[in-house]
Amino acid sequence: MLSKDTLFALSLFPYLGFLWFLTRSKQTPRLALIGFYALLVFVGVTIPAGIYAKIHYGEVLANVDCLHGSAESLLTLSNILVVLGFRQAIVDRKRAS
């Protein structure tokens, strides 16, 4: 059985492939694409924050509210960008037709 950390690390490869195809297709709204890339920032911040929480507080990241909340705010921002990007594409498409 794979550990959750191993599974998390392995999940990055399909996601990077997803980003590659989205970028290459040139059909994804720019703001949504930025949001999908911002998810990588969330991952990049979450990993060191988790290590810091373990070393400094002796806890997992989810149990250290100030670190966990800060990291999760990046996830929220990423989601907002994706939604706004696709919303704008829908509005633009309706206007064009």
TrEMBL record:
Keyword set, alphabetical order: Membrane, Transmembrane, Transmembrane helix
InterPro entries cross-referenced by the UniProt entry: DUF3593 (IPR021995)
Keyword Transmembrane helix belongs to the record: yes
Entry's transmembrane regions: 6-22, 34-53, 73-91
Keyword DNA damage: no
Record-linked Pfam families: DUF3593 (PF12159)
Coiled-coil positions: none
Superkingdom of this protein's organism: Bacteria
Protein name: DUF3593 domain-containing protein
